[in-house]
Write a structure and sequence with these properties.
single chain; alpha+beta; Alpha-Beta Plaits; 2 domains; six-stranded mixed sheet; four-stranded antiparallel sheet; 16 strands
Amino acid sequence: MKIEEVEISNPEKIIYPGKEITKLDMIRYYQRISEEILPFLKDRPLTLQRFPDGIDTEGFYQKNAGDYFPDYIERVSIKTGDGTNTQVICNNKKSLIYLANQGTVSFHIWLAKKDVLNKPDKVVFDLDPPKDSFEKVKTAAERIGDFLRKEGEEPRLMTTGKSGFHIWYEKRRDKTFDERREEVKELTQRMAEKHPDLLTTATRKNKRENKVFVDYLRNAYGQTSICPYSLRPTPSCGIATPLDWDELPGIESPDQYTIDNIFRRLGQK
């Protein structure tokens, strides 16, 4: 069978065993969500998180475009410390379907676009909650949102579909990753100083004292963050879902939105 002119292989392969979601179900999801996810993927190098045999297997991350990928899969050459990588760009529905057919469950995006790879156009904070403390991470998200607005930013909020929240905002491409990261580091330290009982920048878990870890370290060249509307390899089939800030109090879990209810949500919005 074909979808968007892409020949689908092993459509009945189970990708999410607990929910009996097949590869065809996953591909159909990406076909249907394409209008929402493609603007976030546009022109950004990708790291693919692939589970060809289902999420109960080890899976792997793929940065380099496969030699066997068809010509219509756009590529970009990226300088690294060891030479160059050739990574995938996904700017259309056909490419999205092809990559999903490769068993790509999750799409991780760069914070810069292909034309100016060394200057990010967005900043991301990953809020990692202490164990069994989702209410605490909700409070942290609210406080960080308020803090950033006072700094003149326009923060956006997203469930990760896995454990916490991402808060991100757009920036002009006028600083390199190294320059932006120093700025973001200083900003994060001031957040933690303002809310010392709630937030921490300690990377070691045994140093976090049951606080919410504000991870700014992905704001670096070559690092990625999960793309909005990407599936996650979790038993619930959680989806990274953008939220309006006034929705935050009603969120009960980071994987509240899944393949089962995401289109109901989008239809209501």
